[in-house]
Amino acid sequence: MNKDTLKRVLPMLVFVLLLMPIATSSLLDLEQRKVNELLLEQERVQREAEQKIYLMGKFDPAQREDFVLVPQEYTIVPNKIYLRKETLEAFLWMSATAEKDGIELKIASATRNFDYQKDIWEKKWTGFTFVDGQDLSKSLLDGLERFQKILEYSSVPGTSRHHWGTDVDINNANLEYFETAEGEKVYDWLTKNAPRFGFCQTYNLKGSIRSTGYNEEKWHWSYLPLARDFTQEYRKIITEEDIKGFLGDENIPALDLMNNYVSAINPACI
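Request: output the structure for the sequence above.
Response:
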């Protein structure tokens, strides 16, 4: 290489050598960004999987730190009943206030995980538990008709709001109780006062405002500071393909379960 050529090439070599650390650094930064993005995506997928488990009730509330055992003096049944800590605190406050007005509020049912709800559902499906005085396994041989009959008051396993620890059945989960003088007094107090404590009647009377879904349940109240967010998350990450694992689940595609039941709640609770 002669001197003239060297003079021309040398500045280019120096320039290339100066750029090499910058190019190397940029490549490393790009690789690091890709790694970071992959890690973030993995974390998102993991969080979503964990939230699916929670929203579908596939856990033991006794094993979770955010759930607490409801004191026996506030329950109707002797079974162990669990709630989210925030829900229980709000209920105890509401119960104490109601007591001053001569109203007794107790919990008939609270958190029910997937297995608990599956047991309720399948006992009705097989006729072990009668529905409106009928053994549905004999009176409704058509699976879809039987499915819809059970849905009048019972949620499909994996879709119940009772999975979340935010919902309580108060005093008695039967319509007949709320037709008595005592039940009417309790319901009147709840409709006037429960919203002050964060509770909303989830399934109000069906009609023009709520035309689909479960029948009216005067006993079922959701603690909205938690339940409202869970309702939105459920619609985002749970699909009908996720809802399975119980008798009759083959009927789900025919029902538009998400719109006709999961989302068909009192508009005031949304």
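The helical segments are 3-55, 85-100, 114-126, 136-139, 143-150, 181-193, 224-237, 257-262.
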